[in-house]
Amino acid sequence: MSGEGEAQYFSKDFEWEVLKAEVEADPSLQSDSDAWKRFHIRHSSGKFFKERRYLLKEFPELVSCEENSKVLEVGCGNGSTALPILRGNKNVTVYACDCSSETLERAKEIMEASAAAPLKHRFHTFCCDLSINGFPKWLACNPCQEKFLPKQQGCSLDGPQFNDLCSLQEPDRCIGGVDFVTLIFTLSAVSFERMPSSIKECFTVLKPGGLLLFRDYGLYDMTMLRFEPERRVGFRQYMRSDGTRSYFFCLDTARDLFLGAGFIELELVYCCIKSANRRNGKSMQRVWVHGKFQKPFCI
């Protein structure tokens, strides 16, 4: 099904249950930290993070959605998720937030330098730390503003282009908001205690029937096994040397978090992928959690 010259992508190279049994039977698999430290040094320039083109295959709704659809990319980083979405669908507008204003500037630079058709007019950024401040009120659908965000403080916006979201809102009608929220390797960076409120914020800004598209680190992923024991700061949560966090999800935890916020589960699976390191000939077992959740049409 892949196009000519395009790398094939698989999500079931091995069974997660088999990996689980191997890890739990061999504690030594959790002590190799040298390779993880070298990884950070080797990729400190940020060139490692490339476009996530595979997301259009994993989430085809982003390609087939209606004209003028709006996507909220949470924790956009350098735009590695937003850029393939914009390339793949000319009818989509992406609103991207990140807690770092410097990162947002870098994302805009990458967008402007893109060789594709001009994309920057469909890419709008705003600085916001979801886990602490929540989203600005203008992003939520109209009834949800008063129901869920009565004391919400505004975040800094990226110019007047946000008026189109606000102008769509009418009294007593859930017309504002976004059609999709993408949480791609973002929730794992939030402390576990703040995850429920962060997911609830995402629920609030979605239109009824809107989709939340989720992908993040799964339990027993290679990176989890390479953390030193002293880096563990909570249940399945670790602190990197640069102070950032990483949580590793099992399906039950992800399910409880999203259903607890009011979402309907559409898909929730482990993606188990073998990645070969050509330099040292080693095979790496990556585990990600893939999920699609829907906001009910009637709330």
Quick summary:
One of its GO terms (biological process) is methylation. It contains twelve helices and ten strands.
Q: How are the secondary structure elements laid out?
A:
Elements: H1 16-25, H2 34-42, H3 55-58, H4 61-64, E1 69-74, H5 82-88, E2 92-98, H6 101-112, E3 123-127, H7 130-133, H8 142-148, H9 163-167, E4 178-184, H10 195-205, E5 206-217, H11 222-225, E6 232-234, E7 237-239, E8 245-247, H12 251-260, E9 264-277, E10 282-294
Parallel strand pairs: 1-2, 1-4, 2-3, 4-5
Antiparallel strand pairs: 5-10, 6-7, 7-8, 9-10
Keywords: Methyltransferase, Transferase
Protein name: tRNA N(3)-methylcytidine methyltransferase
Family: Belongs to the methyltransferase superfamily. METL family.
Number of strands: 10
**CATH topology name:** Rossmann fold
Counted by DSSP, the helix tally is 12
Q: Order of SSEs, N→C?
A: HHHHEHEHEHHHEHEHEEEHEE
Outline the low-pLDDT stretches. Answer: 1-5, 27-46, 149-164, 166-175
> Can you identify the CATH class?
Alpha Beta
- What would you report as the Rg, rounded to the nearest angstrom? 19 Å
Give the overall pLDDT as a whole number: 77
Which architecture name does CATH use? Answer: 3-Layer(aba) Sandwich
Helix content: 25-40%
| N-end to C-end Cα span | 38 Å
Proportion of strand residues: 15-25%
Spatial ordering of strands, largest sheet: 3-2-1-4-5-10-9
Q: What's the main sheet like?
A: 7 strands, mixed
Structural class: alpha/beta
Give the total of domains.
Answer: 1
Say which CATH homologous superfamily is assigned: Vaccinia Virus protein VP39
Shape: globular
